[in-house]
Design brief:
mainly alpha, rod-shaped
Length: about 220
């Protein structure tokens, strides 16, 4: 988000590059006009020197029409030179304003670039810190998973051992139950025999009592 915001701000300042290009083009135009102006000034000065110094006799040898044409050309050149000087000053003023705007824009651009670099470093530092935290958390999760797997294996072994022990106890219980059933059956049979024997003895005692009464 920070990077996107800063890139948007930098993009908003891209017109500074356009201003640089426009300034270069206008500087080239100014140089061109200055060169033409210098050439025409030189021509005008030469004509002026000729008029002021030694060309009066030469112009006196010319016809009135030729002198008029030369004078008109001279005046025309003078007017063109004045216009060019005006355009030159106007262009120079415009260039100064654009140069001030350009310098201001360059300053803002440099500030934004410096701010962008600082934020980029902060973002990279935050990303690096985030990667470290993620790596640490991944390592912790891996260690927890390994511990969980180890504990799971221990519990599975304990469960298997408990199941085996349960099966052994059930088997022993069934054997003991069968043994107790057999022993109980034997006890019941023995008790029945003992009761039968006691009944026989009681019958015999009753027989003896009856016999003793009869005899005596």
């Amino acid at each position: 988000q920070v990077r996107g915001k800063r890139e948007a701000e930098l993009k908003a300042l891209e017109h500074v590059c356009d201003l640089l290009k426009a300034a270069e083009e206008k500087q080239q135009k100014l140089t061109f006009w200055e060169r033409i102006c210098a050439q025409r000034c030189q021509t005008l000065r030469e004509l002026q020197v000729q008029v002021d110094d030694g060309s009066v006799s030469f112009m006196g040898n010319l016809s009135v029409e030729e002198n008029c044409n030369i004078q008109n050309k001279y005046e025309d050149l003078k007017r063109q030179l004045g216009k060019m000087e005006f355009q030159k000053e106007k262009l120079a003023c415009q260039l100064r304003k654009e140069d001030e705007s350009l310098q201001c824009g360059k300053l803002k651009l440099e500030e934004k670039i410096a701010e962008y670099k600082v934020l980029t470093r902060q973002l990279e530092s935050a990303l690096e810190e985030g990667r470290k935290i993620v790596a640490e958390e991944q390592e912790k999760m891996l260690n927890k998973e390994e511990a969980f797997q180890t504990k799971l294996l221990v519990l599975e072994n304990e469960l298997r051992e408990g199941q085996e022990e349960k099966e052994q106890l059930l088997c022993l219980f069934h054997r003991n139950e069968k043994h107790h059933e057999v022993h109980l059956k034997e006890l019941e049979n023995s008790l029945q025999k003992s009761e039968d024997k006691n009944q026989s003895i009681q019958n015999y005692v009753q027989f003896l009592k009856a016999a003793y009464v009869t005899m005596f």
